[in-house]
Automatic annotation (TrEMBL):
Its EC number is 1.8.4.12. One of its GO terms (cellular component) is cytoplasm. This is Peptide methionine sulfoxide reductase MsrB. Binds 1 zinc ion per subunit. The zinc ion is important for the structural integrity of the protein. Zn(2+) binds at C57, C60, C106, C109. One of its GO terms (molecular function) is peptide-methionine (R)-S-oxide reductase activity. It is an enzyme of class 1 (oxidoreductase). GO terms for biological process: protein repair; response to oxidative stress. It comes from Marinobacter salinexigens. Its cofactor is Zn(2+). Transmembrane segments: none annotated. It catalyses: L-methionyl-[protein] + [thioredoxin]-disulfide + H2O = L-methionyl-(R)-S-oxide-[protein] + [thioredoxin]-dithiol. The active site is at C129.
């Protein structure tokens, strides 16, 4: 078993476990999480959320980002300057759409979350740009 510094099990789920968890997803959730889609800007339910708590992976419930790291990027997607725990995000090169970007995925269930860009605020200078539909919010 692989455990993050924050104390969460990061052991990758099997295909059967992912398929079981995905049974309750809507078509749009499936398109974003499993087929690496993107929701339209300014339509996500978590964009304007100002409550205190944590944003978890919709599929496997791993905490991804704390509300303390959320900021208004003006891009139309929920944005964060650092993850809940560095090990709770997996990074992949994405060369789709004729450009090179860094895709971010859940390390436990491999769900597509969004992308990270080097134009965020201090202290990290990073902008983790997330699909609201890829997350659920757990209020503290």
């Amino acid at each position: 078993m692989s455990v993050s510094a924050a104390g969460y099990d990061l052991t990758p789920l099997t295909k059967a476990e992912i398929d079981k968890k995905a049974e309750g997803l809507t078509d749009e959730e499936r398109r974003v999480l499993l087929e690496h889609g993107t929701e339209h800007p300014f339509c996500g339910t978590l964009l304007d959320n100002k409550k205190t708590g944590a944003y978890h992976c919709r599929l496997c419930d791993l905490p991804l980002f704390s509300s303390d790291a959320k900021f208004d990027s003006g891009t139309g997607w929920p944005s964060f300057f650092q993850p809940y725990d560095p090990e709770h995000i997996r990074y992949l090169e994405d060369s789709s759409l004729g450009m090179t970007r860094t895709e971010i995925r859940c390390p436990r269930c491999d769900s597509h979350l969004g992308h990270v860009f080097p134009d965020g605020p201090p202290p990290t200078g990073q902008r983790y740009c997330l699909n609201s539909i890829a997350m659920v919010f757990r209020e503290a």
